[in-house]
Amino acid sequence: MLVTSINLFAFLGKRLLIDCCKNDWHTAVINSDRCHHYSLFKSLLNVEKYLTLDINIKYKIALARFRLANHKLNIELGRHYGLRKDDRVCLYCQQNQIHVIDCEYHAFFQCPKYDILRHSFLFNWYVNGTSIHDFYNLLTSPDTNIIKNVALYVYHLINAIETI
Ligand SMILES: [Zn+2]
After folding, report:
1. Gap from CA of 43 to ligand 1 centroid (Å)
2. In contact, 57 and 152? CB cutoff 8 Å
3. pLDDT confidence of residue 58
4. Rounded to the nearest 10 degrees, what angle do helices 144-163 and 132-139 cross at?
5. How far is the CA of 28 from the centre of ligand 1 (A)?
6. Which end of the chain is more exposed for a tag (fewer CB within 10 A), N or C?
7. CB 147 within 8 A of CB 49
């Protein structure tokens, strides 16, 4: 009887500690200046499915970097230079008098600078919408084929972002 109570107490204590850690992590992600989109497509403290799939490591790395804002889009570079979020614009679009934040969503679906890549690696299989909601759906999809296709596109996208 005593052993059962101790085990139950240990179980509940461990569970409470895990819940507190998860809450702290979630609060930190939501309040982070860095994780512009990440907080909206990473809601659980768990291993992402794309990390467990049998796909080329370079695609996994590219997808992880893109999701974690480890890239050279101005939303991230501007943060390093202390620019306000509204000033972290896409310089390519700004040449055409379009003032838009240079973020992951803009690069993924909108920026004409990456049109060729988008048509070669995204719109050759993806036929749905291009809203921010669609962006989050693609980045959180549990479908193995979608994950693989997104990873391939993001690999080419992130290479273009860093070389163009
Ligand atoms: Zn642009």
Report:
1. 28
2. no
3. 97
4. 110
5. 29
6. N
7. yes
Ligand 1 center from residue 158 Cα (angstroms):
14
Residues 21-34: pLDDT tens digits?
Answer: 777 766 776 677 66
Q: How far is the CA of 85 from the centre of ligand 1 (A)?
A: 15
CA of 25 to the centre of ligand 1 (A): 32
pLDDT at 152: 97
Segment (H or E) for 135? helix 132-139
Q: What whole-number distance in Å separates Cα of residue 39 and Cα of residue 32? A: 8
Tell me the three state secondary structure of residue 127.
coil
Whole-angstrom Cα distance, residue 139 to residue 129?
14
State pLDDT tens for residues 24-76: 766 776 677 666 677 777 777 788 899 999 999 999 999 999 998 899 999 99
* Mean of pLDDT values over 76-98: 93
Whether this prediction's pTM lies above 0.85 is answered by: no
DSSP string, 13-46: HHHHHHHHHHHHHHHHHHH-SS-TTHHHH--SSS
